[in-house]
Amino acid sequence: MNLFPSAVMTSLLLQTVAWPMLVVMSGLAMGLGILRRMASPGTLPLISALTICAAMLTAYHLIYGKFTLPPLQALDWMPLLIAAALPVYAMDDLFDFGAATRFVLMAATVVLAAVLLLRPVLGQLPLMHAAWVLTAVSGLWLAAWVYFDRHALHNANSGMTLLVVSAGTAIVSVLTGSTLLGQLGGALAAVLGAWLLWNWPRPHALLGHSGTAVAVLALGCVMLVGRFYSATPLRINALLLVALAANVPVTYLLRRSGRNPDGPLAVVLTGAAALVPVALAVVLTVMFYMPQGDE
Amino acid sequence: MKNANTPTRFTRSMTGLALLAALAFPALPAAAADAYHIQTGNPAGNYQIDPVHSMVTFTVGHLGVSELVGRFDTISGSFSLDSANSDQARVSVQIPIDSLDTNFAQRNKDLLGPDYFNATQFPTMSFTSTKVQWQSRNAGQLTGNLTLHGVTRPVTFNIRRIGAGPDPWGGYRSGYVATTTIKRSDFGMNYMLNGISDSILVQLNIEGKRQ
User: Fold this and answer.
1) Where do the domains of chain B lie, and which CATH numbers do they carry?
2) Which of the residues A179, A256, B73, B156 has an alpha carbon 20 to 30 A from that of A113?
3) For residue range B63-112, what is the model confidence (pLDDT) as tens digits?
4) Interface test with B, best of A68, A289, A295 (most B CBs within 10 A)
5) Where do runs of H (alpha helix) occur along A123-207?
6) Which residue spans within chain A are E strands per DSSP?
């Protein structure tokens, strides 16, 4: 048995970064190199969604050891949710459900996901409190998803925002006491990083409805489990949620200055804008929320 | 006329007492050690677990180089473990997961979160006996169902009776040590099996007060 002390760290990095990135890179290489010639341009987001979903499932399996069916703990729902969402929203990419139908579908998805993830917690709360928590969580999740979905057909900004927030969630999770959530958040950041590399400087395969669904659901699962099962502080979560809206001021300023809000500059500025609240969240976590000393 | 250097009667008495005390003092610890003995009273009866004198500890391998010990500070339940009457034997133990302590706050939080115990979703670990087999008057095997992390599996403890007898407050007590080794992956705790051992030694030190 190899007892070299860094073997565990090497394994963590492989599970969290290397393998997920490799899956995305190879998936996009195959998809864009081979399938693009056979399929219509409208199917390109499907290639993104498929590779991102495959990479996250690979990461989950490598990190957590196995898929648990039926799900045992809340986090076990994550792979099922993203795997189930993929075909549904892939149909939306292919056939365009329309804004109203899509909104209803998204609302149903977030309520279902929130109930599945939070059922053990909601059951311990008074009815009104549980209803308030469920409504707040579903509302925030839906708002973020609708916002990202609108941009996902035009630019890579939402991918950059999700990357930065995923990385922030990963760091905060590790600092506040969950290496597992840190790894899963890091894996999502690595996956989106690899996807961005393929879409830089010009997008080849945007996230689309299906890719956005997979990424938003995966990030939502990690953030929700962190908040409700690992006691990530509410203020830190709020800062991470603020970071999700990084695209708003960037798009506004670029439009006002007459620049392209969908270009490479927008992606960089969106990442920089998201980095500010994320960095603040990390600093505040280090200063005030890390478990201190012996008990 | 008395010489000033001649000891008085009082001085002689005090010197004698001091010598006596000095001679007797080394024997005191030995006498105290000898005073402790195992009580061998009848262990029959129904007992309520005394949480103040009971504890659950677990030993887990770390990075393949050491073994760390953690404990659960709170335990409740009841037992009846008369070796003369195995059919009537029963043990029921409940342990709140959030009473875990490994002497390091960051590690405690990690263990209580979704990585391992997930105390929010699975707040209690419990054991209910199904069978007891005694190999001797004071040693045997206790089989039952352990519920941990939402999974219930049969587990067999090796049990050793320490003693049974009256306490200084008019009650009657008996105590046991039970040990077993479980695989955490059997209970759905699969995270980081390359860094934290799958096999975990669990030890219950239980003292009960007869009802």
Assistant:
1) 47-210 (2.40.128.110)
2) A179
3) 989 999 999 999 999 999 887 777 788 999 999 999 999 999 989 999 99
4) A295
5) 127-151, 157-176, 179-198
6) none
